[in-house]
Structure formats: structure tokens, C-alpha cells
């Protein structure tokens, strides 16, 4: 009572428009934190692939491991808050950990730290990998640890008579989550697309991680500033620990009484009756009934969370021009929050009432089943898109193969003979139309007539270009082609300097080539300077293209020869919209309905247990991505999409069967009946005690009369 009075006094003293002033700090904190988390996560898989130079499988694996940790740590955060530190201190301490992790990620993306030769590529990749892994672990610990605390802490700020204001707060709170997610998914990919650096200009992952880190600092400062206005409830113990102890005791007690001489009980949880209250046991039975239905659910999250990994990587091979608007691959994720904000009111106001009017009983479990099926259809759409992409992608060499392209740097045509191929005539300042594939590392190349023959040693699993000099007897240069990067080849007998507004390719020596550089998509103007001569060259770069530019000996008199090593992406990103629609519609029907169903089927004091179980299914789903991708080892991505879709359809059938046999309950009625039974048992006990007292009194009176008579006799 004293604690409630203290709470009322603190809350009433600082109200604004009927709302506690403290909640405004909590709402701002949540918006900044969600912006920080989703902004960092939006560009994470591309950071793995292009900055740390991991392959797609490793990038996907680490991404899903991180997401899984983010959904495992909330259980730890809830236990720490409820049993030890309290919600306020847990949020503050773990937010500090969270902020340190975000700063570590921003620092790990600064390529100049270890770029000693200033070529734009870190020389000590181990430093960047180690720092980023530490940062991700701290972020997972922080964001997961505060996840169950912030919303509950906000709810604590309202008094008992402020139910309406509390409901409005939760609506605004979840609006901030979606708002932060939407804005960060738009902004951070734009920041990543910029070019920055001290010595060399590269994609600005440090800025893309730095802004979320700054927002996390703001979130922490804002939350601490409101410290004096908060109502801070003392830790009262965590229900999850009580549930685990009760279940553990029941299992242990059942094992100790496993022989046939002990009578069987109706439910295995009844073996906890020797130590725990029957009401608690009945509540746990209701929760276990719901948790049993959770067993197939991780497969949905296996597919759903791949929109941040596989689908983003898929978008990197697509064309992002929407008219004059350019969409970055990691910005395609914005369709998810946009469609959520659109589909939730449509489903609640139009679709569900319409289905009900048609006389169909569209129960929550049926909605969840349909949601899982829609997610599977989303991956079928992704597979169809991947088939179209594969038609346009170049065929790269396998681990046992090498590929070679030829470039004639001379001013006259030459004839080239390659093993296993017909004679090829290359015109002056021209390249071969395609790459030639070889199974051996050493090949014999003959150039000219009469021919000059040389042995060329190729590098396995890579593409290379052979630069044929104007004087055949001069040195032949073999250049390793860098995927998705561009280079200039100087065909003059004097140095030339090539620069753009963003990249300085430096001075290129005669009959040599520049370092490889990433050029931003769109129109780019190159300035070429050689001695007293200068000219400009303009090229419009598409998504995903890779080019070699050959500067002829006549310099600006003739146009520069453009060799297209990899064609720009031609499949449009708009083809991903259907799969985002299906996955989001599935999320609305599965996730929103699933939480609503779970909360309606469990006692009020067991909501935290169900939330922990729900988050645990998300974590397991992300681990399944690693297991399936590792076991399957499918060479084609479209086949992997079909595999995941098939697995979810199979799980969907299993879940629908489980749902068919499920009986809906009303936990409040069961608790009321149980309470009445307990009250009746207590009344019967009182009556028995009173009856026993009367019997004792009567017996004592009779014995007194007998003794009196005996004494008189």
C-alpha cells in the first residue's frame, strides 16, 4: 500500500495533458533505439560481403547468427530486470553496452585505419573482423536485453485509473518502432552509398554505422535525463524462474516415482503438487498447451528473416532505377514496414469482417496457417525472380577452372591462337567479346603471324585479362579482373593521370593499368591529363557492371575503348515487390494473430513466459537457416528458395493438423473455477474443524459427568 501511494504521488506531480511526463522520454528513447538497430541491420549483410569480402554463404550465416542472439538475450534481460537490477538499471546498463557495440561497428568500418598503402582496401582484415564481431555481440546483448524492459517500464509509469492513457501510450510506442524501422531503412543505405575516406574514397559503411551509433547515444542520454521523473518498481522476482522450477520439480518427482507401485496421475505436472500451489500448476498446464503449438513456428521465421540477407543479396544483382529515383539494394526492405502499416488496418477493418460475413469461421490458428502458406508463396516468387536473374549473370569459373580475356593494345589487328579454340582476330585497341575458359593453369598462347608463343600461367577460380602490347616482343601483362570494379589501361607511351570528382586513379604508367576502383552508379565524368594534353570522358554506369577502359595511343583524338567485363544488372528490382507483399501479408496474419492468440489462451501472470517462448521461436528459426543452408549445399539459389518454401509448406500441414485438434479455452474462467474450488475446500475444512471442536467439547462434557457420578458413588 505504501508503495502504491508513493507511486501515485510521483505520477500525479508530473502530468502533461493527462499523461506522465516521464513517458515522453521513454517514447523518444524507443524511437532512437529502433532507428539505431534497424539502420545498422539494414546494411549489415552488404558490409560483410563488400567490406569484409566474405562470400554470400558466410555473410548470410553470420547475419542470422547475430539475429538469433538478438532474440535469445531478451530472456536473460527479463530475468535480470525482474530478479536483480530492476527495469531502470537494466535498461541503462545494457544501453551503455549497446552503445559501445554500435561505436565498435562504426570504427570497424573505417578502412583507412589499416590501409597503409592507401589503395582503398584494408591491409589487416583480421582487425576489422574481430572488432565487428565484438561490436555485434555487444549489440545483441544490449538490444535483446532491453527489449522486454522498455515497454513494461513505460506501462509502469501509469496509475491504475489511467487505462485509456496506457493504451494510447502502447499504440504510440509501437508506432515509434515501425517509424524508426522505416526511416532508418531509407536513410542508412543512402549513407552507405556515399563515398568517404581520409586517403581514398570508398563506400561509407562507417557513416552508415556511425549515424545509428549517434542515435543510440541520444537514446541513452534522453532516457537518463528523465531519471528523476520515473516510477521505478522494485524487483519482485521473475515468473519464468518459478515456472522453470515447478516444471523441473515435476519432472524430477515423476522420475523418482517411476515404478508401477505408485499410482498414475492425470497429468505429469500433477507431480509438482507436493511442493507447489495447485493454481500455479493449472496455469502452467495452460501455458504448456500453447507452447506445444509453438514447436512448428520457427520455420516461418526461417523464411521471414531472410529478407534481410538472401533477398538483399538478390537485390544487388538487380537494376534499381525507378525512373529518376535510384533504390539501393538494402532499401528494398522498406516495403516491409510500409506494407505492415497498410495491411494491418485493411486486414482488421475489411478482410476479416468480410470473411466473417461469408460465414467462414476464420479462427486465429487458421489465420496463422494461411500466414505460413503466404510466406512459402513469397519464396516461390523469390525463386522465379532468381531464375530470371540467373539468365543475365555471367558464368564465373569453378574452383578447377580459369577464365581469360584478350585486349589488343596495338594500333593494328593481330591474330591470337588459344588452346582448344579457333584463331581469333583482334582489331586495334579492341578486346575479345567473351572470356575463354580453361581447365589447366598453364596454357600456350600464340600471337601474330609469324606467331610469337608464350606460356601463360592462369589463376584458378578467377578471371584475368591478357594485355597484348603493340610490340609483340615486349612484356605481356596478365591482369586479374576484380569483380564489380573498374580499371583504366594506358596504351600510350607516356604516363596519363585519370581523376573523377570522387576517385583519383592516379598516374598510370605507359602500357600499364590503374588500380581497381568502385565507381558509383550513374553518370560519371573522367578527367584525363597527359603532359600538355587533356580531355574528358563521360560514362553512365549501371548497377552491378564492371568495365575496363583502354586509352589508345592517339589519346583524345580517338574515343576510349570500353570493355564490358560484366554486364550491368537488367532485371528490375520491382520484381521483388510481390515477394515482399506475400511475406508481409504472411507476417500480419501469422505474427500479429499469433501473439493475440497466445495472450488469449494463457493466464495474465504468464504473458512473460509466452513472450519468451515466442522470441525463442524467432531465434531457433534463424539457426535453422544455418543448418539447412549448410546441409543442402545447393548450387543454384532458386533451388534453395524452393527448398525453404517446401519445408514451410510441410510444416504448415503439420501445424494445421495440430490446430485442428486444439480446443480453445478461457483462462480466466478456469482460474475462477479453480479459485471457487479452493474456497469451497477451505469452507469444508472450516466446517470439519468446527464439527471436530464440537465433538471434542461434547466428549469432554460427557466424561466430566461420568467422573462426577463416579465420585458421588
Automatic annotation (TrEMBL):
How does the protein's chain sit in the membrane according to the entry? Multi-pass membrane protein
Instruction: Cite a single GO MF annotation.
Output: symporter activity
Transmembrane: present as a keyword of the record? yes
Please verify whether the record's keywords include Translocase.
Answer: no
Gene Ontology terms: biological process = oligopeptide transport; protein transport
Report the GO terms under cellular component: membrane
InterPro entries referenced in this protein's UniProt entry, alphabetically: MFS_trans_sf (IPR036259), POT_fam (IPR000109), PTR2_symporter_CS (IPR018456)
Keyword annotations of the record: Membrane, Peptide transport, Protein transport, Symport, Transmembrane, Transmembrane helix, Transport
Q: Which domain of life is it from?
A: Eukaryota
Q: Where in the cell is it found?
A: Membrane
Which parts pass through the membrane?
35-52, 58-79, 91-113, 125-146, 167-187, 207-231, 286-304, 334-355, 367-387, 608-629, 641-662
Gene3D superfamilies reported in the protein's UniProt record: MFS general substrate transporter like domains (1.20.1250.20)
Family membership, please give it: Belongs to the major facilitator superfamily. Proton-dependent oligopeptide transporter (POT/PTR) (TC 2.A.17) family.
In Swiss-Prot or TrEMBL terms, this protein is called Solute carrier family 15 member 1-like
Lineage of the organism: Eukaryota, Metazoa, Chordata, Craniata, Vertebrata
Q: Which gene encodes it?
A: SLC15A1
Amino acid at each position: 500500500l505504501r508503495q502504491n501511494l508513493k507511486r501515485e504521488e510521483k505520477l500525479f506531480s508530473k502530468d502533461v495533458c493527462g499523461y506522465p511526463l516521464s513517458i515522453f522520454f521513454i517514447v523518444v528513447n524507443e524511437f532512437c533505439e529502433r532507428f539505431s538497430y534497424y539502420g545498422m541491420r539494414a546494411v549489415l549483410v552488404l558490409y560483410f560481403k563488400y567490406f569484409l569480402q566474405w562470400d554470400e554463404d558466410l555473410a548470410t550465416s553470420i547475419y542470422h547468427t547475430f539475429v538469433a542472439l538478438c532474440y535469445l538475450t531478451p530472456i536473460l534481460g527479463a530475468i535480470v530486470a525482474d530478479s536483480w537490477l530492476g527495469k531502470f538499471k537494466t535498461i541503462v546498463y545494457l544501453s551503455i553496452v549497446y552503445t559501445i557495440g554500435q561505436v565498435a561497428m562504426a570504427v570497424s568500418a573505417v578502412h583507412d585505419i589499416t590501409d597503409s598503402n592507401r589503395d582503398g582496401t584494408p591491409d589487416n582484415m583480421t582487425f576489422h573482423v574481430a572488432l565487428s564481431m565484438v561490436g555485434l555481440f555487444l549489440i545483441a546483448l544490449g538490444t535483446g536485453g532491453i527489449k522486454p524492459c522498455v515497454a513494461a517500464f513505460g506501462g509502469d509509469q501509469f496509475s491504475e485509473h489511467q487505462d485509456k492513457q496506457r493504451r494510447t501510450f502502447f499504440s504510440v510506442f509501437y508506432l515509434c518502432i515501425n517509424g524508426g524501422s522505416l526511416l532508418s531503412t531509407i536513410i542508412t543505405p543512402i549513407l552507405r552509398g556515399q563515398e568517404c575516406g581520409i586517403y581514398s574514397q570508398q563506400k561509407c559503411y562507417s557513416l552508415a554505422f556511425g549515424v545509428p551509433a549517434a542515435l543510440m547515444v541520444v537514446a541513452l542520454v534522453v532516457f537518463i535525463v528523465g531519471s528523476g521523473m520515473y516510477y521505478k518498481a522494485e524487483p519482485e522476482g521473475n515468473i519464468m524462474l518459478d515456472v522453470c522450477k515447478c516444471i523441473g520439480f515435476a519432472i524430477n518427482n515423476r522420475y523418482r516415482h517411476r515404478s508401477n507401485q505408485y499410482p498414475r496421475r492425470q497429468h505429469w505436472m500433477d507431480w509438482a503438487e507436493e511442493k507447489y500451489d495447485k493454481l500455479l500448476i493449472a496455469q502452467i498446464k495452460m501455458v504448456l498447451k500453447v507452447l506445444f503449438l509453438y514447436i512448428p513456428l520457427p520455420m516461418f521465421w526461417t523464411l521471414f528473416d531472410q529478407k534481410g540477407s538472401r533477398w538483399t543479396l538478390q537485390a544487388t544483382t538487380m537494376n534499381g532505377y525507378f525512373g529518376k529515383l535510384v533504390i539501393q539494394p538494402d532499401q528494398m526492405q522498406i516495403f516491409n514496414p510500409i506494407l505492415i502499416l497498410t495491411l494491418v488496418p485493411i486486414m482488421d477493418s475489411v478482410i476479416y469482417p468480410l470473411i466473417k460475413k461469408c460465414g467462414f469461421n476464420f479462427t486465429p490458428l487458421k489465420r496463422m496457417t494461411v500466414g505460413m502458406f503466404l510466406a512459402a508463396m513469397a519464396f516461390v516468387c523469390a525463386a522465379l525472380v532468381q531464375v530470371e536473374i540467373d539468365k543475365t549473370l555471367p558464368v564465373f569459373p569453378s574452383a578447377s577452372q580459369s577464365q581469360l580475356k584478350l585486349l589488343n593494345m596495338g594500333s593494328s589487328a593481330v591474330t591470337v591462337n588459344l588452346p582448344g579454340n579457333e584463331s581469333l582476330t583482334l582489331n586495334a585497341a579492341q578486346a575479345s567479346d567473351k572470356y575463354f575458359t580453361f581447365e589447366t593453369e598453364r596454357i600456350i598462347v600464340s600471337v601474330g603471324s609469324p606467331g610469337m608463343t608464350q606460356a601463360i600461367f592462369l589463376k584458378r577460380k578467377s578471371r584475368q585479362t591478357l594485355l597484348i602490347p603493340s610490340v609483340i616482343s615486349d612484356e605481356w601483362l596478365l591482369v586479374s579482373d576484380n569483380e564489380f570494379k573498374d580499371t583504366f589501361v594506358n596504351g600510350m607511351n607516356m604516363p596519363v593521370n585519370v581523376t573523377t570528382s570522387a576517385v583519383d586513379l592516379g598516374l598510370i604508367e605507359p602500357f600499364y593499368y590503374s588500380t581497381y576502383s568502385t565507381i558509383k552508379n550513374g553518370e560519371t565524368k573522367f578527367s584525363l591529363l597527359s603532359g600538355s594534353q587533356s580531355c574528358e570522358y563521360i560514362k553512365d554506369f549501371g548497377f552491378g557492371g564492371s568495365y575496363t577502359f583502354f586509352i589508345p595511343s592517339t589519346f583524345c583524338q580517338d574515343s576510349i575503348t570500353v570493355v564490358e567485363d560484366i554486364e550491368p544488372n537488367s532485371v528490375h528490382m520491382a520484381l521483388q515487390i510481390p515477394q515482399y507483399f506475400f511475406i508481409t501479408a504472411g507476417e500480419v496474419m501469422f505474427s500479429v494473430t499469433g501473439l493475440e492468440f497466445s495472450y488469449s489462451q494463457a493466464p495474465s501472470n504468464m504473458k512473460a513466459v509466452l513472450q519468451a517462448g515466442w522470441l525463442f521461436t524467432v531465434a531457433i528459426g534463424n539457426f535453422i537457416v544455418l543448418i539447412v543452408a549448410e546441409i543442402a549445399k545447393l548450387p543454384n539459389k532458386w533451388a534453395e528458395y524452393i527448398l525453404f518454401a517446401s519445408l514451410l509448406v510441410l510444416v504448415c500441414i503439420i501445424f494445421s493438423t495440430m490446430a485442428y485438434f486444439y480446443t480453445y479455452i478461457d483462462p480466466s474462467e478456469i482460474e475462477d473455477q479453480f479459485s471457487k474450488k479452493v474456497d469451497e475446500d477451505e469452507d469444508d475444512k472450516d466446517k470439519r474443524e468446527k464439527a471436530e471442536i464440537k465433538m471434542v467439547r461434547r466428549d469432554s462434557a460427557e466424561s466430566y459427568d461420568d467422573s462426577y457420578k463416579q465420585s458421588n458413588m
